[in-house]
């Protein structure tokens, strides 16, 4: 890993060529004019796809794997000391965590936030989300615990879920040590981290031996893998930073450690007809408000069920992996919720469907929709000198919700 900085310098010309090639191919991707900062988004996409292209070159030369290189580049630069926060790296039940505590004196115990980062269960780290966690801790005057769960494909489901649950249990058992109010603890995550936050929240809802969670904060979460043809998947299939095919690809990597049967999963051949009918009450375009269909939705012909594929992906029907499928008896016990969705995001409808499920079960929901938002915009609110005002606006809405707890 120590060789990577030198490799970056040596291979800059190749990186420039790769980025140029990617830029020439960008018209095949869809960057809608209504998206926040479209020119900047195009540059970020070029950088990420150029990184992927360079990673493939490095892998073919045997210098390092594409996955290792991609994770390294996404780490970003190390931040200096924060004058307003105490920051320490610890382990909760052998799970690495980073704890952020405001330095200012407090009149009483603070609220606590368990944060699970995004990255498709494959990318992301404590360093990747350092800016976001510092911002949440400073602006909401909260103790934030960022959890470094094990990543796929090396560690398949349920490794990430188990790590997040284990770290959460440890924190809830030791709140006094961190000056946290047991009545004001929330779980929070974006994308895959939103999936993990929802799953952990469901598991803890029935626990009487731990403090009850005060809230769950789900930022453009991925909550199901039954239907990759919902309206948002059709409308935003080519919109950065999460393409339709990559959403299914990441889900398969998390479940099985590989992306076999990707096409069958995209087409919907992986779910038995009786199971699809069972879950239709929760996973259906019919439950999506009409205003989210105005950009176009095509009726799709039913696909033939392939039993062999189902046998390899039946874990997609487990609520710990796909929280949208939890029974009503679990959902109605969940804490107050905040859900953020983005218009130009394939996962938009996952959030909308879960919002409906929560409300139908009497759970209070604060919903905020970024009409010009795209997937990943929160973590890019201040990215490499680029500013995405919509991402900052969404992050501030999260802070305001936290302050209300």
Automatic annotation (TrEMBL):
<keyword id="KW-0732">Signal</keyword>
<protein>
    <recommendedName>
        <fullName>Alpha/beta hydrolase fold-3 domain-containing protein</fullName>
    </recommendedName>
</protein>
<dbReference type="InterPro" id="IPR050300">
    <property type="entry name" value="GDXG_lipolytic_enzyme"/>
</dbReference>
<feature type="signal peptide">
    <location>
        <begin position="1"/>
        <end position="18"/>
    </location>
</feature>
<feature type="active site">
    <location>
        <position position="191"/>
    </location>
</feature>
<dbReference type="GO" id="GO:0016020">
    <property type="term" value="C:membrane"/>
</dbReference>
<keyword id="KW-0378">Hydrolase</keyword>
<feature type="active site">
    <location>
        <position position="375"/>
    </location>
</feature>
<feature type="domain" description="Alpha/beta hydrolase fold-3">
    <location>
        <begin position="113"/>
        <end position="259"/>
    </location>
</feature>
<feature type="domain" description="Alpha/beta hydrolase fold-3">
    <location>
        <begin position="304"/>
        <end position="378"/>
    </location>
</feature>
<dbReference type="InterPro" id="IPR029058">
    <property type="entry name" value="AB_hydrolase_fold"/>
</dbReference>
<comment type="similarity">
    <text>Belongs to the 'GDXG' lipolytic enzyme family.</text>
</comment>
<dbReference type="GO" id="GO:0052689">
    <property type="term" value="F:carboxylic ester hydrolase activity"/>
</dbReference>
<dbReference type="InterPro" id="IPR017157">
    <property type="entry name" value="Arylacetamide_deacetylase"/>
</dbReference>
<dbReference type="InterPro" id="IPR013094">
    <property type="entry name" value="AB_hydrolase_3"/>
</dbReference>
<dbReference type="Pfam" id="PF07859">
    <property type="entry name" value="Abhydrolase_3"/>
</dbReference>
<feature type="active site">
    <location>
        <position position="345"/>
    </location>
</feature>
